[in-house]
Amino acid sequence: MKNHTSFKIGGEASFVVLPESTDEIISAVNCAREYDYPVFVIGNGSNLLVDGKGLFGVVIKLGANFSGISVNGETIEAYSGAYLSKIANEAQKNSLGGFEFASGIPGTLGGAVKMNAGAYGGEMKDVVIKTVYLDKNLNLCEKTGGEQMFAYRTSAFCDDDIIIKSYIKLNRKNADEIRAEMLDLNARRKEKQPLNYPSAGSTFKRPEGYFAAKLIDDCGLRGKSIGGAHVSDKHCGFIVNYDNASFDDVINLIDFVKKTVYEKTGVMLCEEVKILKNKD
Ligand SMILES: Cc1cc2nc3c(=O)[nH]c(=O)nc-3n(C[C@H](O)[C@H](O)[C@H](O)COP(=O)(O)OP(=O)(O)OC[C@H]3O[C@@H](n4cnc5c(N)ncnc54)[C@H](O)[C@@H]3O)c2cc1C
After folding, report:
1. Alpha-carbon distance 113 to 164, whole Å?
2. CATH class of residue range 66-190
3. Residue 280 has pLDDT above 80, yes or no
4. 109, CA 20 to 30 Å: which among 65, 76, 192, 273?
5. Is 195-276 CATH 3.90.78.10?
6. Is 206 noted as a catalytic residue in this protein?
7. Using CA positions, which residue lies closest to atom 14 of ligand 1?
């Protein structure tokens, strides 16, 4: 799984399936259920920490094979495996503004909808008007507008739901202005984030009224390492895989940071990164 995650951590999965259609997703889930294998749905693996012991189960990866994008007026219809950067480029080419904020988030639309991904004042909540998904009984369902219950890094879609596609509503805007804004945001990202080391982005959610990175820095944890895992010197909100970190290194560092921050400030940090491991 280390080849399927931006953290570059994770042992072998029993199976990884790369479906090209909704029917293939349904077949994969039915087959997994017939043989009692758990199912894990992933996108680009950019918000995941996967167990070094691997995953007993079927990983359904919705990426490039499931990533059609079409533009109808001011609405973009995109399959869940479409990269956010590709959707942002398509929007720019069609003079559609409002998706610039997402252009540098290294995930797919499915992962972004599930997480209500956001940056620089924008979030999926602002632009995703409808999502089509398979529920746990593999019925094709849809949620529109507020039914998607987008909130800070969460949505109505539960772990058994498989997001198929979403509709993104944008506004007419000058294509050069859109390009300039995307370049600016991506330059700011490069300047602030440790993009030269593998990570899953911000390790912790923003606690209400605080910034996780500032709390961690104020507690003297900038640069703290356990094994190959490291609190980034550049951005304390990122734990990076500095030197062949194991799953346990990262988990131990997460726990150490949470304990220290809680003891010193009374604030309990919560993970934003999703941890995938076998049920005990
Ligand atoms: C360098 C870096 C910078 C980042 N910057 C940001 C940022 O600015 N803002 C931000 O919000 N995030 C950021 N992230 C985190 C991450 O990119 C986002 O959370 C992204 O939306 C995850 O998408 P993904 O396709 O990689 O999902 P994954 O990591 O593969 O999965 C994330 C979750 O979504 C679920 N999921 C994925 N696809 C589907 C699907 N089709 N159906 C149902 N469930 C699905 C998975 O089961 C998992 O629970 C950053 C990460 C990195 C490495």
Report:
1. 11
2. alpha beta
3. no
4. 192
5. yes
6. no
7. 201
